[in-house]
Amino acid sequence: MAMAATRFLIRTATASRNPVFRLMSARTQATSAAPASGSAADMLFTFASPSEVFYTQAKNVRQIDVPTMSGNMGILAHHVPILGVLKPGVVSVFELDGNTKRFFVSSGSIAVHPDSTVQLLAEEATAIENIDSKAAHDALSEAQRRLGAAKDEKQKAEAQIEIDCAEAAIKAASGVYQ
Amino acid sequence: MSFVVKAVGILQQPANGVLLWNNTSVRNMATLKDISRRLKSVKSIQKITKSMKMVSAAKYAKAERELRAARSYGMSAKSFYDSLEVEKVEGPQKQVLIAATSDRGLCGAANSSIIKNIRAQLTDPKQNLEGTKVVAIGDKSRAGLARTHAANLLLSINEVGKRSLVFGDASAIAQQLISSGFEFDSAEIVYNKFKSAIAYTTSRQKILSNEAIANSKSIQVYDSTDADVLRSFQEFNLASVLYYAMKENATSEQSSRMTAMDNATKNAGELINKLTTYYNRTRQAVITTELIEIISGAAALEQKN
Asked: Is Transit peptide one of the keywords UniProt gives this record (chain A) (predicted)?
């Protein structure tokens, strides 16, 4: 847990660069696969759910915050390669032009590869604005009822997962992102 | 005595006795009726193939749209398996072949090419048959492989893709595969990779087992990969890749069915044209024969008088 938190701060120095330089480096990389120049644009970000694609090898991303089973982590370019499993929560994508997009994910996986490609695969994902808070509350009470009625460990675990997910959705809808 | 006269140029290959222009039976109306019956049945077949084509065209459009999203998702998932370097393990390998087919036929060679691909491997003498299991998704692959390799079937899944495939289907299959208790060293999904509306290639997608991933050298570069995380990651990745392969396959199947039904409709149209011409000629021949009979009968009477 603690380790994941410290990773938050790795290589923050690379984030602030001259945009012109960044543009150039992106171009040289596209033409001649230049070695990593240390700019944030080196990150190739893919974020998709089975039915929707949000980013495909996008270069315009500075930082991504993801909730994983081993804690929340922020990913910048040249992050240490990791494999992780998502937990229900909010993924924040900070784009180069200053926009921040937030998505709710139910579960999934994150992979940061040695070549700085980041792959975020969510089982279900949607923009935060699309969360129906009332439906989430309904799902929560339904799941709680089922947890009470659960007969075996498996049912219990399933109900617990639903509760976690619904709680996270409610939190996300009310504007609590971490 | 009966002899066969082929109607010149119209029917090169009489399909069965009904179509033979038999001089002895031109006289009676049976031939004419046979042709009209045949014509009717071909017309209704054409109607069926035409509507099947329309249905699969609509399904294809939907599948193609969904594939576009699934592709980006699947490519990421599959690149994990493709990029990982695994060392070759000596000795007999336990392998799982996953046949991604469907329940329905009438889609050209889409399903049979997958079955053929797997059967070719199973019948290879070098193949370690005891260590190879097949997961048959879709009734077609089960039926196709159960005949010759029933002992190798590990799982069979049907009723997939009746409605369009969702991630839950793939993860249920992955769950079944994981809980089947068969510990494989390597696995491959055999599926049809969609290329365009008229083309697909039968491809294989490699899947690595938990051990293979854990023992791989390239996994060392990833930070803090404890066994639990790796296992969850691998299971999710398996479901994702399975979903992707099945999505590709579903699109190929619909496009293939569309082409097959289009061809069938065209062929039926050709057959209808031929039969209509043949029908009209036969009808005329009957009329002509009747006229000749009347005239020659009248002439014979006149001569008597």
From this structure: yes
